[in-house]
From TrEMBL:
The keyword Repeat applies. PROSITE patterns: FG_GAP. InterPro entries: FG-GAP, Int_alpha_beta-p, Integrin_alpha_N. Gene3D superfamilies: Integrin alpha, N-terminal (2.130.10.130). Keywords: Glycoprotein, Hydrolase, Repeat, Signal. PANTHER family: GLYCOSYLPHOSPHATIDYLINOSITOL PHOSPHOLIPASE D (PTHR23221), PHOSPHATIDYLINOSITOL-GLYCAN-SPECIFIC PHOSPHOLIPASE D (PTHR23221:SF7). Residues 1-29 form the signal peptide. The keyword Signal applies. Pfam families: FG-GAP, FG-GAP_3. This is Integrin-like protein.
């Protein structure tokens, strides 16, 4: 937008991390509310944060991930720890432009109650860093049997053990067969990185998945998968793949083309609702879009085809005005910020103009309610908001990544937002902001902000906050 936003003080929290339900129910049974396990590497009950700093695509940095542990006072920057290919115990060698940390996924893969971290990049096979009472360590890290690429965690057979879905699809060996698809690796994993079993699912002959959104939409206690697809500039229909006690159903349901998103119960009916960025049919047009959030409410059969909604910056109650290039929905995360039991949704707007400052970036919090997700009571925050450290500057892209998680264990999700192009001592070093959840929503009281220098990590051109583990 090209006028200043009015900032309010309330946002919603991430779904309170709870233990996954072990048994899947039937479609006729009462729905099992979707649960999001806590990202907790040292199992102390506080949500931990992982920031990727991958540099540009033509950059000279090898990439790194930095863990900031949660506490009663929120993120503790003094005890942050950074990992890369050069960390003792981490397989592989650092490579310029290797983008280690391009994507990450957090999940307790070996069932020891400590969250583990999967890290992928362009520099070889993905690796898993194991959690422990002392947190993450490079020692004992294992390679996973697939090269870096899209990876997302879930529990796709509802057995209470965490699984992974990737774009690594086994080839048939036939040179005339160019099938593509996804590979589901079911937990528990061994410390050597071997899954208990795998399931290869062909998604299309012409194009494979470009990313995944996971969570329990059908209320049966097993997570489902929404995959998005495209080829060159064209975006194709996303697909819904139902999870269940026997694994992922290989017959998908088509959905509107989308990118990114979250699954959470915004109306507290027990079914997970699908919240995604609606992108039309052309990937190349995304940087020029105002941006639209599409909500498909959950049912026992998957995302509803009749109960749907769209929200933009022009929706009543949403701060700002939708303008070309805003990209409302460039990042999406869900959680219960005010503790009322309804999941709320944080929305990144990386191309938002603040006054005359182009692409400074912003975030908006949309609140869940009995009637679903609306613009009522929505809040906006950016670097020009009173109480938020820093200043809105050209192409900071504040809100490039957003995450709702309870880092201080008060039952209310807090907002972490990043600006990978924020300038510190060097250009594009990146930074993060952490706003606390409260009964009234997000608040700037107790807000913190930090970049890689404050965490003892590499700083020059690293684009800290390019990705947030979830």
């Amino acid at each position: 937008m090209r006028r200043s936003l009015t900032a309010a003080l309330a946002v919603t929290t991430l779904v309170t991390p709870l233990v996954l339900v072990a048994a899947a129910g039937s479609a006729s049974a009462a729905p099992v509310p979707p649960r999001t396990p806590l990202v907790d590497f040292n199992h102390d009950g506080y949500a931990d944060l992982v920031f990727s700093a991958v540099g540009g695509y033509e950059g000279t940095t090898p990439g790194q991930v930095t863990v900031v542990y949660g506490s009663a006072s929120g993120p503790v920057t003094a005890h942050a720890k950074t990992f890369g290919r050069a960390t003792p115990g981490v397989p592989g060698d650092p490579e310029s432009g290797g983008r280690f940390g391009q994507e990450t996924a957090a999940a307790d893969l070996d069932g020891d109650r400590y969250t583990d971290l999967v890290v992928s990049g362009y520099d070889g096979k993905a690796v898993v860093l194991w959690g422990s009472a002392a947190g993450l360590s490079g020692q004992g890290s294992a390679e996973l049997p697939w090269n870096g690429g899209h990876v997302t965690a879930g529990d796709f057979n509802g057995d209470g053990k965490r699984d992974l879905v990737t774009v690594d699809f086994p080839r048939s060996g036939d040179p005339n067969n160019d099938d593509q698809g996804m590979l589901i690796s079911y937990g528990p994993f061994t410390r050597e990185g071997k899954a208990a079993s795998t399931q290869a699912v062909a998604t299309s002959r012409a194009f494979g998945p470009g990313g995944f959104v996971t969570g329990d939409i059908t209320g049966d206690g097993a997570d489902d998968i929404v995959s998005n697809h495209g080829f060159e500039e064209m975006a194709y229909a996303s697909r819904f793949w139902a999870g269940g006690k026997d694994g992922v159903n290989t017959t998908p349901k088509p959905l509107a083309a989308s990118v990114g998103g979250a699954i959470a119960d915004v109306d507290k009916d027990g079914y997970g609702d699908l919240i995604v960025r609606d992108i039309g049919n052309n990937f190349e047009g995304m940087p020029y879009q105002k941006g639209t959030i599409l909500i498909k409410y959950g049912t026992a059969d998957g995302p509803s085809t009749t109960r749907t909604a769209k929200i933009t910056q022009d929706t009543a109650g949403v701060p700002g005005v939708g303008e070309e290039g805003d990209e409302f929905g460039s990042s999406i995360s869900a959680g219960d910020v005010n503790g009322d039991g309804y999941a709320d949704v944080a929305v990144g707007i990386l191309g938002e103009d603040i006054e005359s400052v182009a692409d400074a970036g912003s975030t908006v919090l949309l609140k869940g309610s009995r009637t679903g997700l609306t613009g009522t009571g929505a809040q906006a925050f950016q670097q020009s908001t009173t109480g938020v450290p820093g200043a809105s500057e050209k192409e900071d892209k504040f809100g490039s990544q957003v995450l709702l998680s309870d880092t201080n264990k008060d039952g209310k999700a807090d907002l972490t937002a990043t600006a990978p192009l924020e300038d510190g001592t060097y250009a594009d070093s990146g930074a993060a902001w952490h706003l606390r959840g409260a009964a009234g929503g997000l608040t700037v009281t107790g807000i913190t902000s930090f970049g890689p220098k404050a965490l003892g990590a590499l700083e020059k051109g690293v684009m800290f906050g390019s990705w947030l583990a979830r």
